[in-house]
Write a structure and sequence with these properties.
With 123 residues, the protein is mainly β. The protein has 1 helix and 9 strands; from the N terminus they run βββββββββα.
């Protein structure tokens, strides 16, 4: 997983099972269109928001298979990254929590550090 951030946007890139690749850029506070994660034609809308302890990204798309996803990226006290994704599809809700451990040579995640500073708080 690769996370990047500047003053205006947040991006995430990751691959699953060698044939699913997510490469999304979201603007802070401004919805943007991008290809749908479910690979259907059309676009999804995504918007990023800094939070007290990280970044959250809200994603949604319409028919067919309308869905809404809220992803929260948070730095944990041990320096690892917690990604909590809650997906709403019709009457179904699924939450997945993933923990990414940093390598020893890395410092605090720049994404979380910058997001918390943008929200006016330091971790």
């Amino acid at each position: 997983m690769e996370l990047r951030q500047d003053d205006s946007q947040f991006s995430v890139t990751f691959s699953r099972f060698k044939f699913i690749t997510i490469n999304e850029k979201c603007r802070f506070g401004e919805p943007v269109g991008q290809p749908r994660r479910d690979r259907n034609e059309g676009e999804q809308t995504a918007v990023a928001r800094p939070t007290r302890d990280g970044v959250e990204v809200e994603i949604s798309w319409g028919a067919p298979n309308p869905a809404r996803i809220l992803e929260r990226y948070t730095q944990l006290p041990d320096g690892s990254l917690k990604v909590e994704a809650t997906t709403h599809v019709q009457d179904n809700v699924d939450t997945c929590v993933r923990i990414y451990r940093k390598q020893e040579s890395q410092q605090q995640s720049p994404m979380v550090r910058k997001a918390s500073e943008a929200a006016g708080r330091r971790l």
